[in-house]
């Protein structure tokens, strides 16, 4: 079974549309993330979220919003899509704790193209 | 803000040689460091990690060195193989409870 799965793998949409990317992890981790990877391969964190707090990167436009129906899911909703939103979006999960941090496991990515 | 950066964006090595990929970090509170490998069309995959109470850790053909004095991290790959060609990222976790990545190094293994 895939540890972190995200759908869809590819998403092509027009400017101004609203879209969602889904993410699920079956690792029992307490923290999930969304990252944006640009054309230069730079991985920029957008959100980190556990059942207690949401940490938002201040550079992320408020058109982006994470939605977590439960501990195993963290979906990414994007309103009013813009051309500059085109990128690969990665979901990840990890277990964080005092002195017990673990590596993050990543999904396969969603390539979003806004036309 | 805090950042994790790499010295070289690209690295080419001959097959069979050893590779060294470097990373500088700026957050002195970071206590956990990870190297990831990302192949084309895939998500980053864990290679090896090291905690701040260690200065060296070895895996299969890979070694991570941590120098907290100068806030430097390196990944050494022994006997580099074509399958090692990928983008390599260092990442760190500190008190912010999130994983911050460096800018990545493209490793190309030449035949």
Please name the two chains that share the biggest interface, counting residues whose Cβ lies under 8 Å from a Cβ on the partner chain: A-B, 26 and 24 residues
**Basic shape of chain A:** globular
Order of helices and strands of chain A: EEEEEEEEEEE
Low-confidence stretches of chain B: none
Rg of chain A over CA atoms, rounded to whole Å, is 14 Å
Biggest sheet statistics of chain A = 7 strands, mixed
Number of strands of chain A: 11
Protein model, in words:
The complex is a heterodimer of chains A (115) and B (111). Chain A has 115 residues and is mainly β. Chain A is 0% helix and 49% strand. Chain A has no helices and 11 strands. Chain A has strands at residues 4-7, 10-13, 19-25, 31-37, 43-50, 54-56, 64-67, 75-78, 87-94, 105-106, 110-114. In chain A, the strands form 2 sheets. In chain A, strands 2, 4, 5, 6, 9, 10 and 11 form a 7-stranded mixed sheet that branches. Chain A has a 4-stranded antiparallel sheet with strand order 1-3-8-7, with no helix packed on it. Chain B has strands spanning 4-6, 10-14, 19-25, 32-38, 45-51, 56-58, 62-67, 72-77, 86-93, 99-101, 105-110. In chain B, the strands form 2 sheets. In chain B, strands 2, 4, 5, 9, 10 and 11 form a 6-stranded mixed sheet that branches. With 111 residues, chain B is mainly beta. Chain A binds chain B through residues 4, 31, 33, 35, 40-45, 48, 50, 55, 90, 92, 94, 96, 99, 101, 103-109, and chain B through 31-32, 34, 38, 41-46, 49, 87, 89, 91, 93, 96-101, 103-104, 106.
